[in-house]
Amino acid sequence: MTSHARASQPICGQAVVVGAGMAGLMAAAVLAEFFSKVVIIERDTLPDTPALRKGVPQGAHVHTFLGYAVEAMEKLIPGIMEELYGAGAVRIRRNHDIWFHDADGPTPIRDVGILTPSVTRPLLEHRTRERVEALANVKLSDGTRMLGFETGAGGSVAGISVRTSGADAETIPADLVIDCSGRGSRLPAWLEDEGYGPVPEQTLDIAMSYTSGLFRPPAELRGDKWACLMLAIPPSLRASYLTPVDGGLWLATMYARAGDTAPRDHEGFVEWTRGLAHPCIHERLVQGEPVSKLSSYNIPKGTWRRFDRMERFPLGVLPMGEAFTSFNPMYGQGISLAAGQALSLRGTLQRCAEAGSEGRIAASYFSGCHDLNATGWSVMETRDLAYSSTKGPRPADLEERWRFGRAIRDLAEQDGEVHTLMVRVTHLLDPPAVLRDPAIVKRSEAIAAGT
User: Fold this and answer.
1) Boundary of a domain, candidates 329, 350, 381
2) Domain of 338: which CATH number?
3) In the listed set 300, 329, 358, which residue is the last one of a domain according to the structure?
4) Which of the residues 12, 114, 336, 365 has an alpha carbon 20 to 30 A from that of 65?
5) Are residues 222 and 179 in the same domain?
6) 73: helix, coil or strand?
7) Alpha helices, DSSP H only, in 12-160?
8) Quick check: 274 and 254 in contact, CB under 8 A?
9) Which of 257, 234, 251 is nearest to 288 (CA)?
């Protein structure tokens, strides 16, 4: 057991995590509190130092940290934020150091009391992995490919079969398997093959692509914390994020829709930024020196696998991260949703430990992270459906969401407290309902009406 364990004794003997990305590492940190042994299996051979890897194709791109992710990760892995800052992550004051240019234009520059790290994915994952691997009851087996789930009594999951390079296939038994294998998860197919039926899905065709690279700032701008997140103003499809990161570099990510992808040659990449809503990012990048190749990543759709809507769900397995909620990463929700799911897992296991029962583990877990998942999905729907290139069901209240959002946005220009609330909602720290306070609604509607 770890020093921060909450259970007085392990629930069971062994838990297995499939995938050593951020979701898998956070899952393992939770499981180590409750199980005597936790095994993480990872298909990639993991680097000894911060580096990009094949199994994380999004690793070269900006990883926005929302305030919720900061608070949740601190609960899961205490002290991790200061370790990241100590390793070179840049401390960003929202919305003071970062200029947020949304679909209505630039938002006010105000310190709203939220600190988040600007950090490359390789450093983030490396430091988190070091912390999790240091737990006495956690073992990480890299270069190990999952072959399938092992079926136990009553159709439950009893472990996984794996193969390590150069070795025969073997079975790893488990009392609980957490599937953090990403969008390509085998879990939906296994559930259908085992008679549980197809997994319902909510999908939105977003047709997004990312192109990113690292730049060295000119001498006069080194140490400057200025960052900019610039969303597209419809009908334009171009957006961007430029931010300082570890190593004293800038990380620039260009977001595009419907095939308008930023070029992967540096001259064309910088020239493409002339098409952004404001010239500030272009003006910075023409001063920067490219120090990495440019990488692209395509995200055709956002998907919420609704395991929670299945009539039956087996014991012994739970999905987490992009195996569960794979939304548009442009809005920085991925790590937040995975961290929220890890916290739901912790609460569920604690209740199971106290009650001595594991029968309702799936229902408890899905319920515990439902509201956060739903909020993330709503954000993607509301923003992405503003673009004609997005295809999918339009919520009945979509026009009302847009109208209300514009009214709150206008009020936030004048009122710093409302602006802070708006940013806290964006960062998943407060529920959207806080902006429905009658006094706020009345004032926003008066501004919208021009009175």
Assistant:
1) 381
2) 3.50.50.60
3) 300
4) 365
5) no
6) helix
7) 22-31, 67-76, 80-86, 121-133
8) no
9) 251
Beta strands of 267-350 (E only): which ranges? 289-290, 295-305, 317-319, 325-326
Do the domain assignments include residue 7? no
Distance CA 219, CA 132 (A): 37
User: Do 45 and 128 fall into the same domain?
Assistant: yes
For 27, the domain range is 14-80+123-199+307-381
Instruction: Give the closest residue to 176 by CA, choosing from 305, 307, 18.
Output: 18
Strands lying side by side in the sheet with 157-164: 144-151, 157-164, 170-173
The reply to whether 48 and 139 lie within a common domain is yes
Contact 281, 228 (CB under 8 A): yes
- CB-CB contact of 393 with 80 (8 Å): no
Alpha carbon distance 211, 299 (integer Å): 12
Of the CA atoms within 13 Å of residue 135, those in its CB half-sphere come to: 32
- 376 located within any domain: yes
The tens place of each residue's pLDDT in the chain, 451 residues long, gives 333 444 445 556 999 999 999 999 999 999 999 999 999 999 999 999 999 999 999 999 999 899 999 999 999 999 999 999 999 999 999 999 999 998 888 999 999 999 999 999 999 999 999 999 999 999 999 999 999 999 999 999 999 999 998 889 999 999 999 999 999 999 999 999 999 999 999 999 999 999 999 999 999 999 999 999 999 988 889 999 999 999 999 999 999 999 899 999 999 999 999 999 999 999 999 999 999 999 999 999 999 999 999 999 999 999 999 999 999 999 999 999 999 999 999 999 999 888 876 668 999 999 999 999 999 999 999 999 999 999 999 999 999 999 999 999 999 999 999 999 999 999 999 999 999 999 999 999 998 887 6
d(CA 222, CA 42): 37
Q: Is there a single domain that holds both residue 155 and residue 27?
A: yes
Query: Does residue 185 sit in the same domain as residue 66?
Result: yes
Residue 393 lies in a domain: no
Alpha carbons 436 and 189: distance in angstroms, whole number: 41
- Is residue 330 assigned to a domain? yes
Whether this prediction's pTM lies above 0.90 is answered by: yes
Q: Residue 126 and residue 284: Cα distance in Å, rounded? A: 29
Contacts for 415 with CB less than 8 Å, ≥ 6 apart: 443
Number of compact structural domains in the chain: 3
Distance in angstroms (rounded) separating the CA atoms of residues 344 and 332: 20
Q: Give yes or no: residues 195 and 213 share one domain.
A: no
- Whether residues 436 and 287 share a domain: the answer is no
> Are residues 73 and 158 located together in one domain of the fold?
yes
Query: What separation in angstroms does the CA of 93 have from each of 80, 97, 114?
Result: 18, 5, 6
